[in-house]
Every structure is written in structure tokens, then in C-alpha cells.
Write a structure and sequence with these properties.
The complex is a heterodimer. Chain A contains 20 helices and 3 strands. By secondary structure, chain A is mainly α. Chain A has a 3-stranded antiparallel beta sheet. By secondary structure, chain B is an all-alpha fold. Chain B has one domain: Helix Hairpins (Orthogonal Bundle), CATH 1.10.287. The chains are: A mainly alpha, B mainly alpha. Chains A and B meet through helix 6, helix 7 and helix 10 of A and helix 1, helix 2 and helix 3 of B.
Chain lengths: ~525, ~110
């Protein structure tokens, strides 16, 4: 009894990207409290962009100079391994791009608490008020996105899930135009999100009762050794799965996605469609492979069904949509289904797992950039009352603005997975892993669903180029430098990943090679 | 006390919460039902913690986290519900139907700004 205790070790250098983002978010809150109103945006924008860029640089430095760690950090709570570092880099770039889009135009309401058309609203507009809180909120959401795929125990996963989701619920309700739709989207997202996170938690509690720990590695060892409490295990795993599948918008739980994507301000939709999907997929793969890997005989058939349903529902329902953002939301659901094909394509051999994982990682990068670019184009096509959301308004866009329509058509072709775009190699990597993993029927369904999806992408292209523009058609706003940079970067990424994907494929492969730490 | 009692009580509580979310139409009551579900989780975690004689008390620690995050969630949820109520004078979730499938077929001019 010499009075010493063993202090926990925390690898600050490993966690640095995340700490930078969270630190900048907290500084942002302080700026909001102490800086005068006219200065706030001028401080927030560089702070947000610099912290995201700095976190990206730290992630690269960690991966390149110090190598990929082989042990979970922070006493086993956060696993900063190859896939996590790759996903971090992806999320940080996508978030940077989304912030450029957020600061681009006046997408956000001046005073969220004021009723549209009221005297308060008039006054807020007159004073030039703005909710500069959106920048710290975005940073908190991005911090949660970074933590979620790296969470190595269910407590951290739950906290990350909420830190990611809570700011997004608020951000959804802050659109400047079509405010009622935006607030309705926030209510729907919030209620369904809280409902699903309660399922996630109940699953956590049951798995804790089963394994005696919430650590994914310990749950994994308990799956093989603890007997006689299989009810707890099965119900717990199922409920955990419901919570995770909700976040990626897989088929029985996809109902929120079109509503929320349609109602939310378009830059926030871009952030959700790219960053949240990437983060949630990272977490889903980690929980199912690391934590419940020994149970794969049981969850594989279920995910098989979910993947088929997701692809079919996403592709078929997208055909009937007349709202451009809703259509992109259904396309995002279908892409979630394609990615689930990769999750199922695991086998007993480590090489098979690595190829499935690298396929998923490459797909996430390819899809993330294309979807941000597509939503950036959506922000630029304007009607008198805001964005021209109805598809009929897009008719003849190719004759008014060939460049913009061409870029959008290119993104749609990438979504469809036409060769020479990034989408082709993403689908190829995932489907190839699935074929060698013995999931051929799933791949056939996937290819058919892609063909159905291609139909409605091509329909939009035909609408843009081969029909006459309406006399009072939408105007194309001259993009701000930020928006133009976003579109340019997204086009560049889609072309480069489609023509010369090898560097990124290699990177994804080497990130996936070590698989997840346990 | 046998572990089955608290586990069954919490399962019942969770089921009541699920029923409430599905059956209630008032957004505040839906929120309260979600809270009921979270409290079922808390009861479950504490009971398992005692049953497993967890030396690190992982279950109780997780319970504290759940309580804090549930409080944050309620704060945020009430803010969103309040904003909707100011604009629409109703928080009936069945009447929030502007973002549903059938209306998207309508003419763009008919939708309220």
C-alpha cells in the first residue's frame, strides 16, 4: 500500500485529429458567446476550415509517418486502425467541402425562432442577423462522425452516435426558404433518430448482460464461450442492428431519408449524405465484424435480405420521384444497399475480408465526392422561391447552361456506375469481393438494381438535354468561389477515380490489409 | 431477487415506450415515450451490473451517460417542437405531411413556401 495507482494511458497523438475538431468546436461556442456579432462569421469560417484541414494533415501524418497502430487507443475504447484512419481522411475532406458549400450562399435562416413573415423576422433580416452557430454545430457533428467508426466499445459508439446526430437534427431545421418543410424534416429526423438510438441502447444493454462487458473484443470472445443466454445475445444483436441500419437508411428503416434530405438545407443534406453515411458504415462494419463476428452465421442471412430489399426499394421508388433532392435521397438508399453487399462479402480467410473491406472503403470515397458535387449543383439552380426542386423545372437546363447540366449529367452517370466514372470502380470492387465471397445471387440483384437505377438517372439527363426549356425556367446563380470549388473538386475526384483509380484503390487496400484491431 | 424480475419489468417498460411512439400523435408524448424506452435501458443496465458483479461498474457508468444524453436530447427535441408549434399552431405528427410521397406529385406553386 504505497499509495500509487496506475493511471490510464491515453494516446493523445493518435486521437489528435478528433481532438482538434472537438477543440475547434468548443472554441467556436466561446466565439459565439464572447465575440461581437459582426465578427463572428469572420472568425468561424477560417477556424472551421483550418481545424478540418489540420485534422486531415494530422491523419495523413499519422498514417504515413508513424504507421498504422496495432492496438486500440485510450485503454481500448477507441480503435485508430487502418480502416478508421482511411475513413477519417475521407470524412474530413468531405466535411471541408461541405463547409465550403455551407458558407457559399445564404442557405440558412436569419432567426430560427421567428415565425416567417412576422415583425421579428423582418427585424432580424434588417439587422442582417445570421445563425453563425451552424459552424460549431457542424464541427461537433463532424467530431461525432470521426469517433463513430473508431469506437471500439458500445458506450463510445453510443456517445459518438448522439454527438453526431444531435447537431444534425438542429441543422436540418434551419433552412432559409421553405421553412415549414425544413422544420418538419427536423421533427421527423429527431423523433425517428431518438427512437432508433433507444433501440441501439437496448441492444447494448442486452449484450452487456450477455457478455458482461461493452467492449467489442470482449463481446466477441464471449460469443464463443458464454452459453445458456442466447436469447440475450440474439435480441441484443438484432436491436443493435436496427439502430445501425437506421443510420445508414437501410430498407425497412429508410422512411426518414427522403423526407429529411428533401427538407434540410441542401449543404446540410450534402454533409449528411456523404459524412454520416461514411461514418455509419464504418461503425456498422466494425460492430458486425469485430463484435459479432462469431455470430456471422446468424446475421448474414438477415443482412442478405436487408441488402436486397434496400437495393430494390431505393432503385424502384426513385423512379416515381419528382423532387430532385428526394430522387437523390432514394439513390443514396440504393447505394447503401450496394455497400451492404460488401459487408456480407466476408469469409473465413483474411484476404477475402481485406478485399471486401477495401471495396467498401473505395466505394465510400467515390460515392461521397459524387454526392457532394450533385447537391452542390442542386444549390445553384434557383427559382424565385429558392432552389428549383421540382424535376419539371430542370427541363431544358442543358440548353440554358450546358456546362452545369453536363456536370450534373456526369454525376448522375457516376451514380449509375458507367465506366470511366468513379462509381463504376466502386461497384466493381464491392461486387467482385461479393462474388469471390460466394454471394453471387446478391450481386445479380445488385446489377439488376443498378440497371433500374440507371433508368431514372438517364431520364433526368434526357429531361435536361432533350426537352425544351420553360419560358420562366429557373435561373442559374453565379456560384460563389466556395461552391465553384466544391463542384470542381467533385468533378475532379469523379474523373480521377474513374480513369486512374489505382492510387486510391491501393490506399484503400493497404488500409484494409491490417483489418480492424481487436 | 432473481435477475428475471428487473429484466422483465424493463422489457415491459420498453414495450410500453415502443407502443407510445407508434400510437401517440402528439410530438411531446412521442418524446416522453422515447424517454420511457431509455429508462427501460437504464433499469436493465443497472440490474445487469449488479447481477454480473462488474468490478468496473460498466453498466452503471453507461447509465450515467444515458441519463446525460437523454437530457440533452429532450432539450433539443423541445426546441424543435416549439419552433414547429410557433409556425403551425399544432404538434400533431400526423398533420406534418408536407414531406410525404403524394404531395410531391403536386404542382410546385401549390406548396407553401
Amino acid at each position: 500500500m504505497n499509495g500509487t495507482i496506475q493511471a490510464p494511458t491515453i494516446e493523445y497523438a493518435l486521437l489528435a485529429p478528433m481532438l482538434v475538431v472537438f477543440g475547434a468546436a468548443i472554441v467556436g461556442v466561446l466565439v459565439e458567446a464572447f465575440a461581437p456579432r459582426y465578427l463572428r462569421s469572420a472568425i468561424h469560417v477560417p477556424l472551421t476550415l483550418l481545424s478540418l484541414a489540420g485534422a486531415f494533415a494530422l491523419t495523413i501524418w499519422q498514417a504515413a509517418a508513424k504507421g498504422i497502430p496495432t492496438k486500440a487507443a485510450a485503454m481500448g475504447a477507441v480503435a485508430v486502425d487502418g480502416p478508421a484512419l482511411f475513413i477519417w481522411g475521407t470524412i474530413l475532406v468531405l466535411a471541408f467541402v461541405s463547409v465550403l458549400l455551407i458558407k457559399g450562399e445564404d442557405h440558412f435562416v436569419a432567426a430560427a425562432s421567428a415565425v416567417p413573415g412576422s415583425a421579428e423576422e423582418e427585424q432580424a433580416l434588417h439587422e442582417g442577423a445570421a445563425h453563425s452557430e451552424i459552424y460549431p454545430l457542424v464541427l461537433f457533428a463532424v467530431g461525432g462522425m470521426l469517433l463513430f467508426p473508431a469506437a471500439n466499445d458500445l458506450l463510445v459508439a453510443f456517445v459518438a452516435l448522439e454527438v453526431m446526430s444531435l447537431p444534425l437534427y438542429l441543422l436540418c431545421g434551419l433552412a432559409r426558404r421553405r421553412r415549414l418543410l425544413s422544420q418538419e424534416a427536423a421533427v421527423k429526423y429527431f423523433l425517428l433518430g431518438a427512437f432508433s438510438s433507444a433501440f441501439f441502447l437496448y441492444g447494448t444493454a442486452l449484450l452487456y448482460g450477455y457478455a458482461g462487458s461493452i467492449d467489442l473484443a470482449k463481446i466477441s470472445t464471449a460469443v464463443g464461450s458464454v452459453g445458456g443466454q442466447d436469447t440475450l445475445l440474439y435480441i441484443g444483436a438484432a436491436m443493435l442492428g436496427v439502430g445501425l441500419l437506421f443510420k445508414i437508411g437501410a430498407a425497412p428503416f429508410q422512411a426518414w431519408k427522403p423526407d429529411v434530405y428533401q427538407g434540410a438545407p441542401t449543404p446540410i443534406t450534402a454533409l449528411m449524405a456523404s459524412g454520416t453515411l461514411v461514418a455509419a458504415f464504418g461503425a456498422l462494419v466494425r460492430v458486425f465484424w469485430v463484435g459479432l463476428g462469431g455470430l456471422d452465421w446468424d446475421w448474414r442471412p438477415v443482412l442478405y435480405g436487408v441488402a436486397i430489399l434496400t437495393m430494390v426499394v431505393g432503385a424502384v421508388l426513385a423512379i416515381t420521384q419528382t423532387d430532385i433532392k428526394r430522387m437523390l435521397a432514394y439513390s443514396s438508399i440504393a447505394h447503401g444497399g450496394f455497400l451492404l453487399v460488401g459487408v456480407i462479402a466476408t469469409g473465413k480467410a483474411a484476404a477475402q475480408n481485406a478485399s471486401a473491406l477495401s471495396g467498401i472503403l473505395f466505394y465510400l470515397v467515390a460515392y461521397g465526392f459524387t454526392t457532394v458535387g450533385a447537391f452542390a449543383v442542386v444549390t445553384m439552380v434557383r427559382d424565385a422561391g429558392g432552389e428549383a426542386w421540382h424535376l419539371s423545372r430542370w427541363a431544358g437546363l442543358g440548353k440554358r447552361s450546358p456546362l452545369l447540366a453536363g456536370i450534373f449529367a456526369f454525376f448522375l452517370l457516376a451514380f449509375a456506375g458507367i465506366p470511366l466514372t468513379s462509381g463504376f470502380f466502386g461497384k466493381y470492387a464491392v461486387f467482385q469481393a461479393a462474388v469471390s465471397g460466394g454471394a453471387l445471387p446478391l450481386v445479380i440483384v445488385g446489377v439488376v438494381a443498378s440497371a433500374v437505377a440507371a433508368f431514372f438517372y438517364v431520364r433526368v439527363i434526357v429531361l435536361m438535354f432533350f426537352s425544351d426549356p420553360a419560358a420562366d425556367g429557373p435561373s442559374i446563380v453565379l456560384p460563389s468561389r466556395g461552391t465553384a470549388a466544391v463542384v470542381g473538386l467533385a468533378v475532379l475526384a469523379t474523373v480521377v477515380l474513374g480513369v486512374y483509380p489505382q492510387p486510391v484503390l491501393d490506399l484503400a487496400h493497404s488500409a484494409a490489409q491490417s483489418l480492424f484491431v481487436r | 431477487m432473481h435477475i428475471v424480475y428487473p429484466v422483465v419489468v424493463s422489457a415491459l417498460l420498453f414495450s410500453i415506450g415502443v407502443y407510445g411512439v407508434l400510437a401517440r400523435r402528439n410530438a411531446i408524448l412521442v418524446l416522453m415515450s422515447v424517454e420511457l424506452m431509455l429508462n427501460a435501458v437504464n433499469l436493465n443496465l443497472v440490474a445487469f451490473d449488479v447481477w454480473l458483479r462488474d468490478r468496473l461498474h460498466g453498466g452503471q457508468v453507461l447509465t450515467l451517460f444515458v441519463i446525460v444524453i437523454a437530457a440533452a436530447e429532450v432539450g433539443l427535441g423541445l426546441a424543435i417542437v416549439l419552433a414547429v408549434f410557433r409556425n403551425r399552431k399544432t404538434i400533431d405528427v400526423d398533420r406534418l405531411r408536407d414531406l410525404s410521397e403524394d404531395l410531391t406529385e403536386a404542382d410546385p406553386e401549390e406548396v407553401r413556401p
